[in-house]
Amino acid sequence: MKPKILLVDDEPDALEVLGFRLREAGFAPILAKDGARAITAARDERPALIVLDVMLPEVDGLEVCKILRRDPATAGIPVLMLTARAAEMDRVLGLELGADDYVTKPFSPRELVLRIRKLLARAKAAEEPVAHLRFNELEIDAARHAVTVSGRAVELTATEFRLLEILVRRRGRVQTRDRLLQDVWGYENPIDSRTVDTHMRRLREKIGVASDYLETIRGVGYRFRAEE
Known about the structure:
Blueprint: E1 4-8, H1 12-24, E2 28-32, H2 35-45, E3 49-53, H3 61-70, E4 79-84, H4 88-96, E5 101-105, H5 109-127, E6 132-135, E7 138-141, E8 146-149, E9 152-154, H6 158-169, E10 175-176, H7 177-185, H8 194-207, E11 214-217, E12 221-224
Parallel strand pairs: 1-2, 1-3, 3-4, 4-5
Antiparallel strand pairs: 6-7, 7-8, 8-9, 10-12, 11-12
């Protein structure tokens, strides 16, 4: 089955051209011309990735990204933002709100396809089981449920280890508090996000200097920095 890519842009010509190029590259494009349609399509279609223009009528791309990241059903979908070359603040805000990457306009369709392939490969790799991971001073042995920082063993509870493991496996992608409550604690109807914040605070204290890898995305959730 061809991976579904949700394209969101209010310019019909851009949608047509990009849709054609994605079909040519082996993807199944889904087209949306505004933010409201984008949110509905993301929830209904569950695309493999979303290409999201910042400048949209009514509900702009930044707000769309924020809404999608807060919904456990769409929080894990990679988002590639399209921004104007001069709009540095939009790029910064987009990344803070959970966008995985951005492309500045004007861009070539070939560049966009390459970025999409890279993000999809990264998302797939991050979900694959890995027995041992190392991030400079931080080492994680999934098979033994062991963590060391600068060679020193760190004692984590089962929940703390599960929280760290999920963030690491999905590194580079923002995880909302509701999504973590579902995946770490198994809550079907998350109601108290303070549980996540409390465990994150304890986890950061325990791993010390390695806590810089755990990023807080204000108003959204948490992310493990992608650089390995």
